Every structure is written in structure tokens, then in C-alpha cells.
Amino acid sequence: MRNTCRTLLIGLLFGSLMGCESTQSESKNIQISQQLQQQALRSNLAYDLVESLTVEVGPRLAGSEKDLIAVKWAEDKLNSLGFDRVYKEPVEVPVWDRGSAKATVISPYPQGLVITALGGSVATPADGITAPIVRFETLSDLKAAPEGSLNGKIAFIDHKTERHTTGKGYGKTVGGRSRGAVAAATKGALAIVIRSIGTDHDRMAHTGMMRYQDDVQRIPAAALSSPDADQLNLMLKRDQNVVLNLKMTPQSHGYTTSYNVIAEIIGSSKPDEIVLIGAHLDSWDEGTGALDDGAGVGIVTAAGKLIQDLPQKPARTIRVVLYAAEELGLIGGKAYAKAHKDELNKHYIAAESDFGAGLIYRIDYRVAEQAFEDVLTLSAPMISNGVAMGSNTASGGPDVSMLPKQGVPVASLRQDGRDYFDYHHTPNDTLDKVNSESLKQNVAAYAQFAYLMAQSEVELRPIEVAK
Amino acid sequence: MRNTCRTLLIGLLFGSLMGCESTQSESKNIQISQQLQQQALRSNLAYDLVESLTVEVGPRLAGSEKDLIAVKWAEDKLNSLGFDRVYKEPVEVPVWDRGSAKATVISPYPQGLVITALGGSVATPADGITAPIVRFETLSDLKAAPEGSLNGKIAFIDHKTERHTTGKGYGKTVGGRSRGAVAAATKGALAIVIRSIGTDHDRMAHTGMMRYQDDVQRIPAAALSSPDADQLNLMLKRDQNVVLNLKMTPQSHGYTTSYNVIAEIIGSSKPDEIVLIGAHLDSWDEGTGALDDGAGVGIVTAAGKLIQDLPQKPARTIRVVLYAAEELGLIGGKAYAKAHKDELNKHYIAAESDFGAGLIYRIDYRVAEQAFEDVLTLSAPMISNGVAMGSNTASGGPDVSMLPKQGVPVASLRQDGRDYFDYHHTPNDTLDKVNSESLKQNVAAYAQFAYLMAQSEVELRPIEVAK
Locate the Peptidase M28 domain: which residues (chains A, B) (predicted)? Predict the structure, then answer.
């Protein structure tokens, strides 16, 4: 597509073709993408899928029995929707069971606190760990503590997550969750509790994955709800010696097999080239995974279905990938990249929906610099759906974030996430939090994106390899 | 006070005395009440009290160990604030322990649900009760079910509580909580679950007292969180045969002694006449009772303290009553009415703060019809604090609601309760939900009310006895 035609093409979206040089096929693409947008805004399919997944399957922690029920659910749904091809690919996933988690202030003000185990945490001894807490503002502060200064103590990282539309507050605090246990154990701590990585004031703790390191003692790790973190602060203000008893019974049970579930609309003229739109099928175990990532599953599946039902298939194959075990460390995403290694050079572009059900306000890309303007021009039909044209710095979403390093262009369809971290990884991630209208707008955006990319004649490679 | 002077008196609040007939003492009363208002709006005492109670004591279920710690806290606080007189009066209260509560959908879509035991509920057998659920829209619908139609079933009342500033939605649904178990058992049910009596969409169940009846089988009773009630509905939409397993371990342990804790500012000229401002000290056990009723405790205590510190005490005695065991059935209020039976004719007026920390927008009274206009005139200084003059139909608040029947005038200082039932009786009733600024406005209103009533020369009796 010629750059000179960009403005006119945008004009075309809202009016008639005014002698533009664009080819007939380009205007046809625009017309079909607009038709997909309108169909998406009228369809409740994505919401119906989220409802079905959250009600009929519910929580589906990777590696659990419910995870396999979710895989079966996905295969059945994708088959019943009539995709050209539906298949699954095995993924090895760890098996971890949450058990129970209880925290009690022993002194100076005895009372229970609301906590939850971080994903992957080891258990405490049966009678718990009883020790004074030492508060740190941030993970960096904990890392700066003197060696041995936490001997016999429980570390407490109290970092508050800021609310932002982009969700950028999460990035600033999540290190305390994933790397806090190693940092605390290095200083001698018996256990670690963190203020939940969340923006709400509900008395629910936010779980999420944490990591150990082979050469460092594995200590139990839990998150406190925000009001409970406040409570500890107010106790510490009165008395620096706050003693906590922590009892947790999570267990790890080796590995099992889960699956990436995949559906395809086979391309009409370039069937070996792939436009990938993904979401993850697994969820945390305490909510029903409506926002994370039932919404994404609904969005990309419904978007794919609209294209599947077109009278004429687009040039490239569109691959809807429902990833396994994203929550446990992008395991499905990594497995996909490995299994499809030899085919990655045929991946035209990839994008994942994994940020709830908020409206999409912008699309970012990561494509060759010289292709960027053309790809924006190509995406212009999305503007009338409220999607602004963004930057060339996308990561593409968690499960496709490893693809740019292998040369695959990606896009990030940015959603309004200002309330996403109110519910993220809590029991509160339930269907009532999903706005069916914004879900439709998401489907429209993904359908337009996937279709336009599958028809695109822009060369997106080579991309600048992310550091 | 003469009615003719009313408008001028209101004018006086905002300007100078313009030759009004009001006596010097009346204008002095207005001046002092305005001074109390301004002091209240500058003081953080009420919030500090709520913080202290919720942090240092925390949850304080009547009859529990923590309840007695709360009584000690209250005595210490009231003494340290320098009230003229501080004492406590014994109240017999039941001892009930929540234990654990677990609900699991066995079929058709196995998954856990979030529930909590209703206060006073009996336990299930150790392996739980497994039975199909039968849904009813309301308690009335349950009552209309044929005899024996719930044999071997679990009743499910699904009544949604409406959000209103006045909180009137609660009155429409709470019957299902208090009387649902008796109604369900009468029809043969093995247990009952209800949609939480609450206005939120959080995955937390709302507890609250329920009652049994001697001649009816005692069956376990629990509340489901709102998202879990939705979940059951969506399952029933797909399959009418939803089987639930309910495991609950609450226990009753007879009775113990708790206390109404009382502080007085002794009246300068009519010390035997009483203006009562109350709140309840006990709370449910899952939150820290910040809104219910830490806020009330803070408000009436801080209001009393402002009057205690006046250079000249008002004519009547002001009695600050922190009631025991309101949550378990107005037990402290009833005990007070009984213990002070002979003195109730000396109670000039009574009011309780027990509706959280929302702004007071209106004051209602229940006084002699012929006194109503005068008492509104008298209360006019409260208008500049945002308190409108209301009706003559007040109940006075839960723990004083039995007093009008014994001839005692009451007032209701109406608070904005539109979010009160989001948190009420849940783990989410914590300090972060208390707005310190609206708390100050409440203190101002109670201080003005108590002072003006303690100085009033209006005869409030005889009141029309409530039916």
C-alpha cells in the first residue's frame, strides 16, 4: 500500500472512494473489515463463551483436574464453532496445590489476617512459623538489608501498586512477588509476606507466581490483602515488635501434561503463513478466571469465528491459540515457540489478549521500521472502533512476548486496565466483572486486526530484535 | 422557645441577633452549638478512636474473648478522655463460634463457592449435607412452597438487595436471612443458603443473625456471595439439578457475660435527666467492625468528649452508651432498657449511630406532635452542617428502638448509606472504608444534637407510642 494514499484511505472509511490509487482489493479489505466490526458489535458470542467457561468449568489452575476439563471445553467449543482445523499440543506443566493459608498476629494485637499463598510457594511446618516481621517499602529496600539481618524474621514488602490505565503500576511492584522470597531468604528470613500486587481495597489477597533459586533456601511466600497490609502498618506504628504466625499447606506434585488448544481458519492463498491471535486458557484457582483470561479466550475465539464465517477466507491462515499455563510462567507460550520453531519464519504477526475486558484504545506494533507507517495505514479501519494508532514498541502480550526475539512481528491491542488489578488473581475475578459491551468492542478490534493482517501486502520483517 | 422566633433564630445562625425575642440563653445555646460544630470539624478524635479499636482490638464478636478486650478498651478510652463518670453494666450474651463453612457444587459443574455461616447457625454433619438446591426468588415464595416439597433439599433464597441512600433495600431482604431457616425447615429442607443481604459484587458473603424456633428443626444456614449466587443461577439455567455439598462447623457454647460500657457528662442543673447517644461496641467476627459499628463508637464518644470539655456543662446529663451484642439481637439495648426501667421516664431523648460513616443529611424525631416544630427550631443550628430537618417518624436506631414504646422520645440522624451494604457484615468492613472527613461531620451533628437537647426547654412527651 502506498503511503501517499493513507489519508484518502482513512477518508474512505467515512465516505466514498475519491479517485484514490488504492486497488480494488484494498478497498474490499476495508469494506470487509468494517463489516466484521459491525457484526462483532452486534454479537454476544464472546460473552457467551466467557460465561460458559466460567460457569461450566470455573477455576482451572494449570496442572489441575479442572485444567483438563477446560482443555476439553475448548476443543468442544472450537469444534462446534466450525473452525477449519482444531487440535491440541502437549505442554508439560507443574502441579501445585494451594492448600490453606492462615496468618495470625500473635502480638501485640492478636487477630487474623487475610492472606493467600503465592503460586509455587512451599508450605510452612505444620505448626506454622512464628516470628517478628520486618517491613520494607520495596524489594530494592529488602535487597539493601544487611546480610543476616532477617535471621529468624518474616520479611514484609509493603509496596503499593499504583492505578494506571496502562497497568504500568503492576510492573513496578510485581518483582516483590516473583523475586521477594529469594531476596528475603538470602538475608536469612524464615518466610515472606507481601502487600498484594493490586489496586483495590478489598479484603482479598492477590496470588500470582513466585520463583525460587536453586542455591537459595526455599521459604514460604504469601500475599496480604491491602487492608491487612494497612493493619500491619498501623500495628508497627504502635509497636515495632509485631509477631506473626504463618501456617500454609501448599504442595507441589511434580509435572503433568496440559495442552495448548488451537483453531485455524485456513488461508485461501497463503495457507502456510500465519496470523496468530491468542489468549490463555488456564486461570488461577481462587476466582473463575473471567477477566484473566476468560475474556481473552472469548475475544479471540469470537473474532476468529467471524472470519471463519466469511464467504471468502483471507489469504493467510489465522491461528487462534489458547495457551496452557500462562499463569505458571508463560509455559504454554514457550512450548508453542519451541514446537513451532521451524515455522516461526512463517508467522506474519502475533498478538495476545490477556488484560481483561476493558475497551481497546490503541494498537501498538513491533514491525520493521520501514513498514510501520504502512501497517498503521492498513489498520486505519480500526479507528472507527475507538482504536488509535500507536507506537512501534509492542511486546504482543505474555505468551507471544518471546516471539520478537525470533523475528516474529507482534501487535499489542492496548486495553483500558484501570480496574484490572482490582480483581486480578483474586477470588473476585468472576463473570460479573466482565462488561459485555466492551467485550464486543474487543472482538471487533481483533477481528479487524486479524483480517487486515491476513490480507496485508506489507512486508513486516525484519523487526528490530528486542534486547 | 416560641415558634414566632424560628425564622429569626435561623437567621441568627448566619448573622447577628436582630431584636429577636429569644432569650439570651437561647442565643448562647446556638453559639455554643456552632462552636461545637466547628471544633468537631477540626478534630480527628473519632477517626483515631475507630483506628484504635479496629487495630488494637479488631474483630470483637459478642461473647468472644475479643469482646471482653473491647470492653476493657472502651473503659480505658472513656476514662482517659476524662468523662465525669465511666461504668459498665453486665449483659448476658450467647457464645457462638463461626468455625468453617465450605460449599461445593458436586454436579453438574464441580467447583467451590464462597459462603459464610449465618450467625447462630448450627453445624452440618461432619461429612456435610449433599442435596439438590431449590431456588426461590424471595422468602415469601419459599413460604408459599407446598408442605414437604423441600424434603431432602437445600433451599436457596436468591433475593437481591437494592441500593438506596436510606438503606431501605436491606429491610426488604433481611427477612430471608433471619427467618429463612425456619421457613425452609417447615417445608422439609435440610439446609438453607441465601444470596447475601448486600449490595456489592464482591466475592465475600455477608453474615448476620438468624433465628430458630423451638418447635421447628434447626437446619444449617449460610449466605453466598453475590457472584456465587449468580453462579448458581447460571448453573440452574443450564440444568435444574444442581447438587451442593455444604460443610459447616459453627458451635454454640451457652452464655457468658458481656457489658454495656457507659460514660457520662453530668448535667449542671438537671443531672437526673438524660440525653442518650449510643453506638454498639461489638462487631461481627470476619471484618474489624470499622463501619459497623466502630464508626458509631468513634462518633458518639468524640461528640461526648467535646461537650465534656466545655467550660460549662449543659443542664441535662449526656450519657454515651456503648452497647453490647447488638449484632446478636439488640441484646445490649434490651438489657439497658430493662436495667434502667425506672429511669426511662427521665430519658429526655435517645439516638444511636449505627449506619457507618456516611454524611448525615437529615434528622428525624419521634416526639410529641405539639413539640415537633419547636424541636426542629431548636435543631436549626445543625442545618449549617448539612443536616436537613426531617419527619416525626424516627425509630432512633437499633439499640434504642425499644425505648419509644416506653415513652422515650428518640431521634434518627440519617446517614448516607448507599455503600453501607457493600461492606456490612463482611471481612471487608475495615478501616480503609471509613472516610475521616464524613466522620467529622457526624461528630459535629451528634455534638450539636446532644448539647441542644441537654439545654432544651421543649417538653417532648408524651410521644405517640409506636405500634
Answer: 260-448
